[in-house]
Amino acid sequence: GGTNSATYIGNIAYTPIAATRRSTRLWGINQSITYGSTEILRSTAGIIDCGCTFLWIASDAFESCQVATGTDWDPATNFLTITTDKYDALRDLEFHIDVATYSLTRNTEIWLRSLNDKVDGGANDIYLVVRSISRRTGSGLDFINGYVFLQRFYTVFDTSNSHPVGFATTQFTYATTN
Q: CA–CA separation, 12 vs 75, rounded Å?
């Protein structure tokens, strides 16, 4: 156990477990998400899950994300797809957790193109990793920050702390590789 200060930059920002019943059973936190100045997800409860690949958000937030990013739904893959021009203009998704903000860069927001064949996608297509939970905001589990989020931030799960979930940036947080 414990933290390793050689693997993160700056301080770890801790946040309390969410008070919403559905989220308290797991590593639940409160957060909001913005894309530029557009609110994608209002401050609400959800979970951090290292066993989940994608970023799952409530269906109304997913619709807001689709409109804000100018993406189209690809029924063959069940992913949002984006043109190269729109990808070049893609802005960071900002996660507001307690008093800190964590950004996913555009390259982090997309599915690994080398794996497009694994989801029946086109070799040169660009897919976003944002998925819909298929229920509207207010369920008590309005987001799941999966691996695509966690791979970019040093994350602490501390059952002995009154604020048991913490995040810090790493040397890979703003990397342009995916």
A: 40
pTM for the whole thing?
0.94
pLDDT in tens, 103-126: 999 999 999 999 999 999 999 999
For the chain, which ranges sit under pLDDT 50?
none
How far is it, in rounded angstroms, from Cα 148 to Cα 159? 23
CA distance 156 to 177: 24
Structure tokens, 157: 């799960």
Alpha-carbon torsion (73, 38, 55, 83), positive or negative: positive
> Does residue 1 sit in helix, strand or coil?
coil
CA dist 164 and 171 (Å) reads 23
* Contact assessment for residue 96 and residue 39, using Cβ atoms and an 8 Å cutoff: no
